[in-house]
Amino acid sequence: MSTQVLLADDDVELSAMLKEYLEREGFAVTAVHDGEAAARLAPGGAYQIVVLDVMMPKLDGVEALRRIRQASRVPVIMLTARGDDVDRIVGLELGADVEWHGRSLELTGTEFNVLEVLMRNAGRVVSKKELSEQALGRPMARFDRSVDVHLSSVRQKLGRGSALIHTVRGIGYHLAKG
Fold this sequence. Notes:
Arc Repressor Mutant, subunit A, 7 helices, Rossmann fold, 3-stranded antiparallel beta sheet, alpha/beta, 2 domains
């Protein structure tokens, strides 16, 4: 049986992309687009993990997490575009999980973007040019090592999970599927 994931994000396009990716990796995903729905569904025991966006209508992710924690210990991962320390602290105090294999994983916004681009393209080589444009939001300059530096940092933070990211010399990087 597949791991059941509840994904709560008001960005419908991003939700669809995340849902598609997770389903390709063997997860069963239910997507909702407001915190109220997440707070109502998460404690029921049907989901093994909940992914909550911080900024949502009706009920933001922080309040949704507060309500979920009143009734359930289901693992929760918080998504925040802002990267504010306040969001992280409040989320952690309320019981969000921000761990990878049992240890805390703190990614900067750029590191998260690099990992997200690789995940969206899992199974194929992503050029440094593509990573620079999509993850850093700028064209790659001559002799620019920014992508390499950010990827090195992501690998270090992932520990043994970094073995999934392969360097394709002179071209870019490849995230292995599964």
